[in-house]
Amino acid sequence: MKKVLYPILLMWLSIFFACSSPEQNLIKNIETLEKELFTNVTGIVDHDKALTLVQLYIEYADTYPDSDLAAEYLFRAGDVSMNTAYPHRAVDLFLRVHRDYPMYEKSPESLFLSAFVMENQLANHQRAELTYKRFLELYPDHDLADDAEILLQHLGKSPDELVREFEERLRAQEGL
Question: DSSP alpha helices (H): ranges in the chain?
Fold first, then answer.
């Protein structure tokens, strides 16, 4: 009986592993790394794992650009890059999402976040201003439109300048 079961079991296992596609394997690798990275309770980000995860996200999107997951993975890659001190890559990824996946539900946020990173992490105020304005032009009714307008009003101002403006407005209101 064992002589019959072992070959059948081996054949079944071979078929099972042969049927898992490269795409499914890549998704599984991404999910495993996400769990490792995002369930870390120490609060310390493992930059090597984060970089590897970003590379896997990009590899998936490059290999399967028509997949429903491609835009989501690129968005996540931008988010991880933004939060692990890779702002240039984050901007590139967010702009890629917006350009290549305009119908993706987070496409507007991608454009907004690219401007936000330009402003706050790269201190490229000119480019941030153009991108915020483009966001407002394309998505005037989006939930982030008010935020974009406020950020444009305060773009490039130092904290001291913002405090001064706030105090002046406060004095003007008190004088009324």
Answer: 2-19, 22-38, 47-63, 68-83, 87-100, 107-120, 125-138, 145-153, 159-175
What are the two backbone dihedrals, phi and then psi, of residue 102, each rounded to the nearest 5 degrees?
A: -65, -20
C-alpha to C-alpha distances, 102 to 36, 61, 143, nearest whole angstrom: 31, 15, 17
Q: What are residue 11's phi and psi, to 5 degrees?
A: -65, -45
pLDDT digits (tens, 9 = 90+) for 67-103: 999 999 999 999 999 999 899 999 999 999 999 999 9
C-alpha radius of gyration, the chain, whole number: 23
Tokens of 122: 């790269």
Listed residue (116, 117, 63, 123) closest to 89, CA to CA = 117
Question: What is the enclosing helix (H) or strand (E) of 29?
Answer: helix 22-38
Give the span between the Cα atoms of 35 and 50, in whole angstroms.
Answer: 11
Q: What percent of the chain has pLDDT over 90?
A: 68
